């Protein structure tokens, strides 16, 4: 059995992801030129996206990471836990949160407020995927959106189900019988 056998449909190929990432990087380059922003990846899901994104951002930037948790299996618990905090001071800095997917909005809103409380000059979000779902608890102000996706549980390119499938080079819909 290969991981591909667990995928119902491939939504975005490696090439699709690269095109989306380059487009977002171009927007970020334009908006953050000469501002030396701090790009903050939310671990673990956004690590592949962050790695590819910053390769195409053509301005000075710094990178940092936060590890936050609010999911058990496929459901958000509604409680956000910070497992790893930033190692860089962001006071007076422009911060770009790099997220793999926006779903309920709870975790992202918590992190935005948390970073603003540290006196960041600005806090914006870049996400590869936006998944507007009925369970979205809070509206999230996401300035940079790669693409919107349909219902279904997506994995690959950093996105996981119980820590599996992150290593897929594409994004696909996981077969429902595997997570129901």
Automatic annotation (TrEMBL):
Domain Phosphoribosyltransferase stretches: 15-161
CDD domains: PRTases_typeI (cd06223)
Swiss-Prot/TrEMBL cofactor(s): Mg(2+)
Keywords: Cytoplasm, Glycosyltransferase, Magnesium, Metal-binding, Nucleotide-binding, Purine salvage, Transferase
InterPro entries from the UniProt entry: HGPRT, Hxn_phspho_trans, PRTase-like, PRTase_dom
Location, primary (coarse class): cytoplasm
GO BP terms, alphabetized: GMP salvage; guanine salvage; hypoxanthine metabolic process; IMP salvage; purine ribonucleoside salvage
Catalytic activity: GMP + diphosphate = guanine + 5-phospho-alpha-D-ribose 1-diphosphate; IMP + diphosphate = hypoxanthine + 5-phospho-alpha-D-ribose 1-diphosphate
Secretion signal, residue range per the UniProt entry: none
Molecular function via GO: guanine phosphoribosyltransferase activity; hypoxanthine phosphoribosyltransferase activity; magnesium ion binding; nucleotide binding
Pfam families: Pribosyltran
Associated pathway: Purine metabolism; GMP biosynthesis via salvage pathway; GMP from guanine: step 1/1; Purine metabolism; IMP biosynthesis via salvage pathway; IMP from hypoxanthine: step 1/1
GO cellular component, one term: cytosol
Record localization: Cytoplasm
Function of the protein: Purine salvage pathway enzyme that catalyzes the transfer of the ribosyl-5-phosphate group from 5-phospho-alpha-D-ribose 1-diphosphate (PRPP) to the N9 position of the 6-oxopurines hypoxanthine and guanine to form the corresponding ribonucleotides IMP (inosine 5'-monophosphate) and GMP (guanosine 5'-monophosphate), with the release of PPi.
PANTHER family: HYPOXANTHINE PHOSPHORIBOSYLTRANSFERASE (PTHR43340:SF1), HYPOXANTHINE-GUANINE PHOSPHORIBOSYLTRANSFERASE (PTHR43340)
Assigned protein family: Belongs to the purine/pyrimidine phosphoribosyltransferase family.
Protein name: Hypoxanthine phosphoribosyltransferase
